[in-house]
## 1
Amino acid sequence: MRSRASSRRSSIQGSIENLDLSELEFDEPVENDAHAGGGLTDISHHKQRVINVSNAPPVSIKRKLSGSWEIQQGSGGLVACVDPVMSVDKENMWLANIGMNLQGAARRISEDHASPSTNSLGLPLLRQANAGEIFHVLEMSLLSVLHDYNKSNYQLNPVIVNQEDYNTYYGGISNGLLWPVLHNLPEYIVKDYDDEQVLREHWCAYVRVNYQFGINAVRNSRPQDFIWIHDYHLMLTGQMMRSLDSNLEVGFFLHIPFQPPDNWMTKYRIVAEPIMRALLRFTKVGFQTHRDRQKYVELVKKHISRARIQYESTVDIFTVTHENFTCSLGVFPVSIKNEDFLNIVKNPATTKLATEIRKKLLSAGSDKGCIFFSVERFDYTKGIADKLKAWKRYFEKYPERIGLDLLYQVAVTNRRSVESYRVYQDNCLKIVDDVNAAFICKKFPTWKPIKFNMDGLPRAKLVAHYLAMDVGVVTPIKDGMNLVAKEMLICNPAAALILSSGAGTEVQLGNAGFYAQDKQCYYRVEDVTDTEVCVVNQCSSEFCV
């Protein structure tokens, strides 16, 4: 439903100087609006739907050489945990920005692909790449493809935002500030945000984009619907939406950790305070682990003095009441759909492919070697640089393993336009070259200690690699959950798993008694190195670094 905001709305869209979102006020909805049917309308005969709202869509949209569009189902943690819920009912709706997922037919990510010129924030992030396509997303050929997609799936609706605002919201506040902050990796916060004026200007863009997502969700909702907001890009939407209609049921799930550094509420106050308060306007907020929820509760107690907090031990839920709104805080670790992976494992073609993969990977060295396998996004939170250094240290300490073992690292390149990512990725590639040059085996001259792949693997081939590996290596510095670790365990329970305490999965498996709680659990180079040789020597069947 379309609504008319009061003069306060302009403070969101323009000069949001005081950034106090709690003061937003809105007029009553327009009666007899031609677009009636949104969250502000009383339509009691409709059944409840799920309206899913995320920055990125669950699909990849590509333009063929012919000019026509092609939609393919996406992958990743968000799609894995949400798609089963959304697929239950074709009336469910997914709202997302589609522009960032548009790919030209000839565009390919490669190591030597030149990135657009940027400052340390990576801005203008996509101006020289594909952000311009955001405003062409509604051309008739793509609309037709979306229409066909919606016939056989839940409803996928695009959220269109101002290009410049989107660049700043995504490449600036979201990935230049919130991502490193919430992972407690302050060294990756872009230096530009030491300037309060820059921080304030970029924060205003983040607010405006959140408003566009929020108003789209309200317009498409009905009173019975559950609106499900995802991740750090959209942390303000609940407050905006419930300012429009306080009866809306709006949930929020944070897929990444919530572990901000100690100076979060002081140095970045103009961002931190509104986010802390805005989260309390959601009906429900979900975290991946108890440690993430506990950190948020501690900050609420310390910085929002009027909030009333209660804990219900029988259901393990915190209830927080603030400014006449009540929010429940829960822990809901995401997982995978086991049968999807097991069905691939049971396929004879997968077993055959796994045998071929193993033979090929070990062909340059001894067939008695071990395959260490790791797959993740090429992100500084994933601990890839430390893992590569540990692999170098492994051969320095245990030279008898030269010519035997190899690390196959799949690191899917992303966010090359952000300088911190570009520098990190280039540094990792240099480490790979150095390690491969440092260890030569005279007996097996074509053997190399590291095989590095930046292109990713389709699911069937990925599962085959899980079956081919001897050891899965999952060593993020910080990770909300990490579904790869679960996939490895489900697909190949006979393999060993090196899992760092930085992953939310480690907390879940530890609580389930998967390994002794008194073990040292780090992602550090020496610890990974020693655990690698322990795995090779088959000292235990379960490992946690």
## 2
Amino acid sequence: MVQVPGAWPWAGAGAGGGAWEAGGGMRTWAGGMRAPRLAPGDPIRCRCSVWQAEGVQSHMTRKKLMLHTFALLSAWLASARQSDASDLYKRLEKRDPEALSKPLMPSIVAIPVAEQVYPDWLEGTWDVSCKFSGYLLPVKQLSKEQIMRDVEIPGFQKLSIALLPDVGSSASFQKSFRRRADGKVVEDRQAGFTSLINSYVGSSAVKSVTCTNDRDSIELIPGKTRNAERIELFSSSRDSEAVGDIFVCSDYVRQVTYGLSKQFGVARQVVGEYQHFWTFKKKTDYELTANLLTAAYLQPQDPLFFQAPSKAVVVYSTDYNFRRG
């Protein structure tokens, strides 16, 4: 597994193991929890006021003031993203659960994000095996019982997290990274989602996958799974950094899952938000290891939302082994 210096404070709720019995497609996770290998660090903190940044004049019209403020805010957010990305590895080393909160950007201004770029040594097709390695409930104000009853939390139902279709289970699939025309290496998400979901579901469940820089649309064959017929993924914040043979990246995702409902002619729609934190470590030209931390958040309509409006209420850890196919 990926080794990063430091130690997680894994005391408290979630550290005792036991059964996971939230219902709705849940698995039972027995045994004690093993600490995930890494997590993000301090969140971005704004210490400036956009209203004072350039001495906004009192005679400006309301429209001009709004446009001026929006321009300043957009510029600051873009700068914050660049600064935050440059020290992602250091933040991950801190292993502070408080740092798994939602990024500032998606809640203020929706800025299109570029496709994630990966190091050259990830290029190619890999045979991947993964194994669930533990979970954590970092919000002390919420009891384990309160969280387990909330089946709308991402990960508590199958396919509520597209990259982890059945949290708690193991799987084997293929993952590919290709070189674009500009020479940069990106993930083949279309092939990746198809192989991943089919492996977890246990059959050829994926009908089609359409991808753009910041959106993925996954259509499933009707009847293959009861929890989803179509999945829409929207990415609104990404960071990455390479340090030697280690590459770290994060992706904040809003997932909308459409499926069958009890009401005839009306599709069931479930919205979830979560953030992925990947760490890849190169071992040889033909083998690498990785860890994925997935932080799940509450939606505003959730009764527990105001107790954790921006903090991760559940964190899942999954370990991966990559071998060239």
## 3
Amino acid sequence: MFKGTLGRLMIGDWGDQLDVRFHLAERLARLNGKRVLDIACGPGLLLAALPDSNEKYGIDTNPAVLKKARQLNPRASLKRASMFRLPFESGFFDVIVMANVMPNVDFDCTGNARTNQLKAIGEAVRVLKPGGILFVTAPTAVWFGLFRAKGKKRLEYADLDQLLKPSFTYEIKGWNPLPPFPYFLPARFLKRIPGWFVFLEWLCEKGFFNKWGKFFYTEAVKTVKHKCKG
């Protein structure tokens, strides 16, 4: 688990430590020597979790949060840009992160939800190297069965599966089966138990939460296209 200033910023932005982005941050902290793009990076918390051996890139449409991201990641390359038109050449990145930024699910977006999601994933596919990894997290339909914000749609397992299937090999897993209320108490109770977070990660990796977790989590590997020899 992250401690100090970064840990406090994560809790302040994401809420309790059962948020799937804490699990993702732990995974990103193990990367080395990669060129990494965080799409809709916000204040740059996930970029800050990356070791400095990685090349860090981030895009967001909000100049205010980009300013915060620059303060937290002074060596990162950060640009104001849309996820629907990434300002990078094809095959540029080893790793791409889309953490709770699915169009029409995590934020309201004009136009057809399916079209927007295909376009966002398509741009990620374009700038990702063959064999590169796309990390995706998103709230599940279980979560939105309890909380539905105006303008946002439910994301079913089949929806995410269809978005990833044309270009990736992957396994969609679930994260955090605990009820949302009271909001902050589950983590406050669990953090008193030694090793609770590692155990929760192990359960996630084993697929215990695939059908009833509050979040989807996947590490999708871009399929290498082989040309047929004539």
## 4
Amino acid sequence: MMRRKEFVGSFQVPEEIEREILSRLPVKSLFRFKTVKKSWRNLIGDSTFIAMHLNCYGSNTDGFLVHGCYSYGIQLSRSSFDQPRKYIIGSINGLVCLSDKIRCFLKKDDRLRIHICNPSTREIMELPQCYHDHNDFLSGIGFGFCRKFNDYKVVKVSYRRDSSSSEAQVQVYSSNMNSWKMIKIENPSLWTLLPLYRGSGCFNGAFHWQGLKKSSSKKIIKTVVSFQFDEEVFREINLPNDPDFQGDVQFFITEYRDFFSSLVVKQGPNVNVYKVWVMKEYGAPDSWIKQLTIETFSFKIAITDSFGMIPKASKWTANLSYYYNGIVLVARKAWFRCPKKGSTTSFQ
């Protein structure tokens, strides 16, 4: 028996097997295992292992949590933030980007506090201050991931209030460099970014905003503006030339079954109509198709966008108390947890 104990005690699991096992564990377990031994702590913090863990575990879509909040900041309890209100800019790979300001004028001495946090590990990092001049108007903030360089980036777009030109000033933060840089853009006055809560999100390595632009006939038309994090360039995605996107309608940028999509909402006195448009080939405007049309009884809703997090979920949905093919509709000021089995739980 003594020899067996000695044999077991001297057995060492190969490093590649340890790496494979750890990469399949939940984040909370990894957070605890960092204290087991130094080699595990170094491994779990390694960027190569983090990418491996995302591939193995990050694709799990067994459930999601939705907060339907329309025009309010969020209260972060038991955190290190000293401001009571924060706005969610976006989330990717389990990281969440928060800002204390959106769509506002900034004086030269004003602080714009942007944080990147990992809710699973409770780690929070405040970004260094970015440059802004006197009376800059903060138009948009985006958050995403550059796969080419394994780099998380934040883009900030602002305009000079007292300038005769509508030229945008664009700055990009790199987590690898932990610094901001100014970049030049083509056609800087082409788009006017709409408030982030009107539908924004990260898809296919780019952050997306709703936008407005002037047509050749000087008519204001709706469009989508994207910032590609790999190339650090802006691009335009034309919306379908369809009455669904004309007039006073709401549309929201989202993801539907791994496709770039737009949810059009028309609220009536008795019936709400939701139409899902899907871009079958990303970036090709001719590939837009109308995938779904849903009619429900009328109730006040808030479509979760930049003020809420929706981890990727493409198998089910919740319309108050039932699912419908990937569209998430939530009542105002309510939380819904939608597990894989098909039931819905509401938390007021």
